[in-house]
């Protein structure tokens, strides 16, 4: 349950992303700057942390040993995750993007067969945890419900542009995160892994920033400041907390799905934040019902994880040779 608590705390800091990305879009800021600036600001903070913990030499050694994998999965986990989210912010409020983002919970469960576990020296392909998939499907129903009011007020093209990029991000984030856990295999701590992924994704952010400079010009001081807040809150604090939680349960697909399900609480934080900071109205009743269904799904994930933990504890007690 500690991992789930970490996940919920991470969701609180992640919520800043959706609120401020929408705020920057309302002010006319380009998604190109919103996405690239976040990682530019993350880099120095993470560098200081890793250098202070004397972990830079090991990180450098690991990245040199497998540069292709670092570049590939960092691109998937960071670029294909965050660039689509900032792009989608132009087509709807933060709570809508955040709500659609919860599809990552279903995506995370479906990705299980892409990973292999070593058991007794034998390579075993992981299976989709059926109970977790069923619970995640409840969350998917909630996501569909929150889209209904939006679908009635915007064009089909705008709806697709606001949803499809988020679905891409929903698959990319857990895939990149899990693949990098597989690459590191416990040799690096969370700070080193996040810094490594940030460094490996930096070429893409630099290219996007150069493109933004020649197409939309320099970002406004407001966008720079808000991106700094996003970089610290979401990029450093939330990412590290979430990666710590997933690291602890990386060998159990059911528990991993439960930790990823905690991100559904982002929606609550985003709604409150947008109402207070951006003076946005409360979502429609149908959307609120959808949000309620998402939260119920998250609670079911937590309860299922608790039951599984108790079964493991009982099993270990029964077979304890002492």
UniProtKB/TrEMBL annotation:
Keywords: Membrane, Transmembrane, Transmembrane helix. Pfam families: EmrE. It comes from the Bacteria. The chain crosses the membrane at residues 31-52, 72-95, 101-121, 128-148, 154-173, 194-218, 224-244, 285-303. The keyword Transmembrane helix applies. This is Multidrug resistance efflux transporter family protein. It comes from Lysinibacillus composti.
């Amino acid at each position: 349950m500690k991992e789930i608590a970490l996940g919920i705390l991470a969701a609180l800091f992640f919520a800043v992303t959706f609120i401020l990305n929408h705020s920057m879009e309302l002010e006319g800021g380009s998604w190109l700057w919103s996405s690239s600036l976040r990682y530019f600001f993350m880099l120095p903070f993470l560098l200081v942390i890793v250098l202070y913990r004397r972990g830079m030499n090991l990180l450098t050694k690991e990245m040199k040993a497998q540069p292709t994998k670092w570049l590939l999965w960092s691109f998937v986990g960071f670029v294909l995750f965050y660039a689509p989210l900032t792009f989608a912010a132009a087509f709807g409020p933060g709570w809508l993007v955040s709500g659609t983002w919860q599809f990552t919970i279903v995506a995370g469960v479906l990705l299980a067969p892409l990973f292999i576990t070593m058991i007794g020296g034998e390579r075993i392909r992981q299976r989709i945890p059926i109970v977790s998939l069923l619970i995640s499907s409840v969350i998917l129903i909630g996501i569909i419900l929150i889209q209904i009011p939006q679908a009635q007020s915007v064009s089909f093209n705008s709806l697709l542009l606001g949803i499809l990029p988020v679905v891409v991000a929903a698959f990319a984030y857990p895939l990149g995160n899990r693949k990098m856990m597989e690459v590191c295999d416990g040799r690096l701590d969370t700070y080193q892994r996040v810094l490594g992924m940030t460094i490996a994704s930096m070429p893409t952010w630099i290219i996007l920033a150069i493109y933004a400079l020649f197409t939309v010009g320099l970002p406004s001081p407001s966008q720079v400041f808000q991106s700094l807040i996003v970089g610290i809150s979401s990029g450093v604090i939330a990412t590290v907390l979430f990666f710590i939680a997933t690291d602890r349960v990386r060998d159990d697909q059911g528990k991993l799905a439960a930790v990823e399900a905690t991100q559904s609480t982002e929606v609550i934080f985003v709604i409150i934040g947008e109402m207070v900071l951006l003076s946005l109205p409360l979502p429609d009743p149908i959307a609120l019902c959808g949000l309620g269904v998402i939260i119920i799904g998250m609670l079911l994930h937590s309860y299922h994880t608790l039951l599984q933990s108790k079964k493991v504890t009982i099993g270990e007690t029964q077979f304890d040779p002492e």
